[in-house]
Specification:
With 200 residues, the protein is α/β, with parallel strands linked by helices. It has nine helices and seven strands. Strand 5 and strand 6 form a beta hairpin.
């Protein structure tokens, strides 16, 4: 990581998690220069984000989610955004970025009670769990769904958190899995804004 930090031809460092148990995630991620920290894991970038200030680099998947919503002209300000999942990679930074855009945000997780009732109130639902947990009957009619979760079911088929077939009959917009948020994460990594931030 030190070598990559010092190499000016390297503009971004992304650590694939989880790491083996004998390697400290905190030591590894904190060793990355904040300017090259495309997941937003360093304490510097985390602090900036949670203070409502601009970090060197916005976390790439949450940024991809916002780019996706903006591309379709979906207003975030004033909307009730429900984020299912509280990981440091997607759930928490996504919730904070939505708060920074003046949304009202509810974060749900494995200990949340009345999950279905909360999801039904979402103008925008963002799910990042990696399990098929959301059925069509749980969706707010005309709600907007961003499905970040991805996993293979027992038959080997790639799926998302949301039951796409049922939910697509209810939602006004829904991102597919695969082919939705994944490409937007790549787009966020390649965006001109991101590149200029790294070079400054």
């Amino acid at each position: 990581i030190k070598e990559l930090n010092e190499d000016k031809s390297v503009t971004a460092i992304l650590v694939q998690l989880p790491l083996p148990e004998h390697i400290s995630k905190e030591k590894i991620t904190d060793a990355i220069l904040p300017q090259k920290d495309v997941d937003g894991f360093t304490k510097y970038n985390c602090a900036k984000l949670y203070q409502g200030e601009k970090p060197y680099v916005y976390p790439c998947t949450p940024k991809g989610i916002i780019l996706l919503l903006e591309e379709y002209g979906i207003e975030i300000e004033g909307k009730h955004v429900v984020v299912v999942g509280r990981s440091g990679i997607v759930g928490k930074p996504t919730a904070q970025m939505m708060l920074n855009k003046n949304a009202t945000v509810t974060v749900c997780h494995s200990h949340t009670k009345n999950l279905e009732q909360i999801i039904k109130t979402a103008d925008i639902l963002i799910s990042a769990v990696g399990k098929n947990v959301i059925k069509g009957k749980m969706i707010n009619p005309n709600g907007i769904i961003v499905d970040v979760g991805i996993f293979k079911d027992s038959s080997g088929k790639t799926r998302g958190d949301v039951d796409f077939e049922d939910a697509s009959k209810v939602a006004s917009y829904i991102s597919p899995v695969p082919g939705g948020v994944g490409p937007m994460t790549i787009a966020a990594l390649r965006s001109e804004e991101h590149t200029s931030e790294l070079q400054s």
